[in-house]
Amino acid sequence: MLQATRPRGRGSRHARAVESGARAIPDEAAFGPLSRFVVDPAVTDVFLNPDGSVWVDRGAGARPVPGVRVPPGEARELAVRLVAAGGRHLDEAAPAVDVRIGGGIRVHGVLPPVSPTAAVLSIRLPPTTRLDLDALERAGAFARVSRERVDDLVSRRANLLVTGAAGAGKTTLLGALLGVAEPHERIVLVEDVAELRVDHPHVVRLEARQPNLEGAGAVGLDRLVREALRMRPDRLVVGECRGAELRELLTALNTGHDGGAGTLHANSLADVPARLEALGALAGWSDAALARQVVSAIDAVLHVVRAPDGTRALAELGRLRLGTRGRLVAEPG
Fold this sequence. Notes:
The chain has 333 residues and is an alpha/beta fold. The protein has two domains: 28-124, Beta-Lactamase; 133-332, P-loop containing nucleotide triphosphate hydrolases (Rossmann fold, 3-Layer(aba) Sandwich). The chain is 25% helix and 27% strand. It has an eight-stranded mixed β-sheet, sandwiched between helices. The chain has a six-stranded antiparallel β-sheet with strand order 5-4-3-8-7-6, covered by helices on one side. The chain has a three-stranded mixed β-sheet with strand order 1-9-2.
């Protein structure tokens, strides 16, 4: 995935792409047979499947690596080692764990019996190329929705919801948008696992914490949103809305916190209301109550897509309104 940044402040319109070459890995050897894929700057994701096969995504979808097979015992040791590098334990008591290691590498490991036959690893890699909004525009990201409309949303501190399918570029676009906020604005990011990379002088990160082996010590996104409000944010951002934190974010945006943003998994603009309703149910809201909160809080929806050739673009700019019987409706606008 492309990672978007931009020179600080709104004044610069110069395109910038920072190429850092091979990905720097603190302990390359820890990745064992996967190390050569992890350091490859073109690779965005590496998957180790239960049958020992390795699949690699270089931006155009996952493809199998011919001739590579990792035996079950080695796969298990690798998964346990990588999760341990992120400060957690992967074992029968905790057979599925998500961690962040080595400068933003996200590792998700699963062991039997959750994965019935053998260990599974899913590795999401941070980009080595950083693009600002100008570079994204040159790449065609704003061919369907004009760059000027996007700039205007940031300039007037609209509350934004960036939507799209997995891997469509939601984090890329959101990071780029935040990168053009005024330098004096205090941006507080709330994420399950830190993925947003924002080129801005005043960014504070809060990251959720998983429970320990005794099931204690968890700090969820909903609590982190409440903590963020005590930090006087000029822009409150939730990296990905997946549960009860949606209630806290909408409440904050409806009480004078403008310039906020979040991302949401949705396959199309038309699917956004249903996804929000599902999350609202988790937060204990009726569809009607959620609809009123969303319409008041969210000024615009930016829906991004990923084409079969791997290119990503802002496909639609829409808004959310109340439809019949008080239900939420999304429409282009």
